[in-house]
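Narrative progress, year one. The postdoctoral researcher (J.K.) led the effort to move from monomer predictions toward full complexes, under supervision of the PI. The following entry was the first complex the group processed end to end, covering 551 residues in total.
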Amino acid sequence: MAVGILGGYPARAARPVVDAFAALGLHSTFYARVLLHVPTAMRRYWRHVIRHVSEISFGSASLLAGGGTIGVVFAMSAVASTQIGLEGYRGLDLIGLSPMTGLMSALVNTREIAPVVASIALAAKVGTGFTAQLGAMRISDEIDALETMAVPSLPFLVSTRMAAAFISVIPLYLVGLFASYAATNLAVVNIKGQSSGTYDYYFHLVLTPTDVGYSLLKAVIFAMIITLVHCGYGYYAGGGPEGVGKAAGRALRTSIVAVTVLDVVLTLAFWGPRPTLPGLGT
Amino acid sequence: MSFEAPPSRTALGDAFTQVGMLLNFSVRTFSTLGTVLARRRLAWREVLEQAWFLASVTTFPSLLVTIPLGVVVALNVGSMAGQLGAEGYGGAVVAFVIVAQASPLICALMISGVGGSAMCADLGARKIREEVDAMEVMGIPAVERFVVPRVLAAILVTALLACLVMAVGITASFAFQVIVLGDSPGSFLASLTQFSRLEDFLVAELKAVCFGILAALVSCFKGLTAKGGPSGVGDAVNEAVVLAFILVFVANTVLTELYSAIVPARGAY
């Protein structure tokens, strides 16, 4: 399937707009086809799904690039949540409410920070990896070769990755969430010197299973979007080696914007415009 | 001068080699910057072109990320402060979160994710087509011609972008809190002006500049060490983005802690 389907249109002025709509349509059709082919991929190419799961979770890249996604997610979540602990303590201390930092950890980490940070880590590590792999396959004509050999490239390459991402995101995200809680606790109790009993009391008071479930749901939705966007940009990459790198950048931009916008939508959908704190009796 | 990684057998050895090479690369970039400025042969045109490119690819996505972020901050802060009986506290938290934390981080994510990956792809493609080596042979050092202008452009663009992100983020937060949640605009603005300080703004700018330097250095380094054909360029971009994101997050914590240790918090509610 060629990318430049609009090559012959004469209207010069409307070209950018038409191209934008064409790209939108191309990518939307791509997303729908990928999702529809996931069951086929699970049935026919389950070996590849398992291989992708191990590649996503532990990776084959060098140790400096985080040693696999699990390391990247852990590191970024821990650092971001240390920040939440330290800044939250400082902020609440101004109004004399520093004992309630535990409440902030349970609330802000679960609802916003952990899903968004884990998704950014996933997009950077797994997403750009997918774009790089698929883009390299596209520009060296390997995808066309697959089609020539009567292997349907979309289920074989993209739907398997989609299924693998769905399987690996749940444990990966839970590791990230654990890192967030542990890092905030460490920052507040060990660096700022708050009593661990006070911290734990407010932390457990506000942390509910429902929130954790919604938080996991957020992370899974973000991971789906990220996989689709990055695979789409890689699958339709063009323009030589440089084009692959540029596609990775554009994919990252699109997925970060999509994740932050969806984050607001999901927050409003899950907790309403005036979210209440569980456990405080208000 | 070329940047070829020596072959290493273990993952740990590889990591240390990369760290050493990156440090070497950074030191060389800054010494070249000094020489170039002293001898007045900085490639101004390249700086401006790169700055324009970075600004044109990062500005719009940054704003698209900032507006939802301002809404999320207002949403969470509004609910929490309201239940603790501190409704007017929203402005102060916005001053903390958006000015000091979010704006440098959003700039860094955009510069390293969008701008840095393009830089890395550009340099990586030139590297694997041996254009960079050809330039070195002709006596044009790659660091002076490619890296120094890109680092300067990243500094310029992150510093300006951070201001834009702050303005848009505070406006989005204010608008959501006043129009959608129906809070008092006066108390928001009062606590905003009471708690925000010039130092916070300056430190946020400093942080944004540091993140810009980190992102540009990592992207250029990974681009100039790309090898292995087209898929090597893709891998280089992937590694550059991951490394830049981790470095930026770690640098953010370190800089914030240094700042709050040096300058004590001011103001009382």
